[in-house]
Amino acid sequence: MRSFASDNNSSVHPEVMQALMEANTGHALGYGDDKWTEEAAELVKKVFARPCEPLFVFNGTGSNTMALQLMTRPYHIIFCAETGHIAVDECGAPGKGTGCFIRTIDTPDGKLTPQLLAPYMVNFGVEHHSQPGAVYISQCTELGTIYKPQELRELCDYAHAHGLQVHMDGARIANAAAALGLSIDEVSGACGVDTLTLGGTKNGLMGAECVVIFNKNLIGEGRYFRKQACQLASKMRYLAAQFKAFLSNDLWLRCARQANDMAQQLAAELRKCNDVTFTQTVESNQLFLTMPIEKSQKLHEKYYFYYWNEAKGEIRLVTSWDTTSHDIHDFIAHLQSL
Predict the structure, then answer these.
(1) C-alpha dihedral over 148, 151, 154, 160, to 10 degrees?
(2) For residue 206, what are the β-bridge partners?
(3) Is the pTM of this model over 0.90?
(4) Looking at 229, 246, 263, which one is the last position of a domain?
(5) How confident is the model at residue 278 (pLDDT cuts 50, 70, 90)?
(6) What is the C-alpha to C-alpha distance for residues 284 and 178, in angstroms, rounded to an integer?
(7) Which residues of 294-319 are buried (b: 16+ CB within 10 A; e: fewer)?
(8) Reduced to 3 states, what is the DSSP secondary structure of residue 312?
(9) Residue ranges making up the domain that contains 261
């Protein structure tokens, strides 16, 4: 099966699989007291030009919940875009895990700004109201758009000036960095976020994420929140081994570039179709578009993808590190045959 539904559907990169096989020998201490975790943590720290605490976890929902628990209390409000992953796709886990009110904000492109946050910076110190506490953003956004460093700095500075902390969901951060020609640090930690999910599962890993804590006031408690969020792996070496491969020999960058390049190739071919209209700019490895519903339904019979807005007939296509030009040629040929 070949799919354009999600980069979660892609296979595991051979270099990651090899790293797992190499880690799968003999016994090793559990819960992170092993050489793989130590070495992988050092590699993560080298990615960022500032002190940080990397904590390996299982998945994106757990990492977001854990990070938001760390920076909030149940009387806080967590702000996110209306399309934000924590509001749409995590079954309420961050809200349940933190006890916080998740306040969604409408955005045209999935990106929050100080101007969009400003109307909600009210009721500070009033005990009858939930208190503004945190901002959740994702890089890339759920609409495939990318925060530029200046946008991030302005947002983080505004949040911090009002006493809020910022968590970045970096499930596709590699795609953002590759698209902008910048380092992972330049599109996250260097811009002032307090915590980051350094994503790997969508970019060639079998299943591993890393919560990176930059705020020195949060580092001391991070490990306890990871345990309470059920994200502390007993056989940690298998998560860490994936990140060792991911951050070696620019694997993260090679995978992200391939996914982004294939998205641009697919977009170029789709633009030749008179009945296809893009609803968002193609900046990363996600494409949002509309076509006649009869055609998309027939296309869906052979190629799995998600309807983003069924009322408008909007669909989402996602390319992955293992998407090939042949995949795109076949997809377009089938589309044209309809």
Answers:
(1) -80
(2) none
(3) yes
(4) 246
(5) very high
(6) 9
(7) eebeebeeebebeebeeeebbbbbbb
(8) coil
(9) 251-337
